[in-house]
Amino acid sequence: YSLNESRDVVIDGVGGTNRLRIEQGEAWLEEASCPDGLCMRMGKISKAGQSVICLPNQVVVEIMPSR
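and the corresponding structure tokens:
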């Protein structure tokens, strides 16, 4: 997904679901069904190579370099 377009994306992971929010050039996990919620506290990412990981749900969100 492009960081230039605002959107909400529901991600069905192995252990549960996460909701990815993209807005104003940043991405973050806004909601998660995992028990600890650590992924939601990882904050917003916007630069290539940054990632947010939810281990219980086995979800990885990573900013890829532009082509």
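(Above: one complete record from the training split.) The mean pLDDT is 96.
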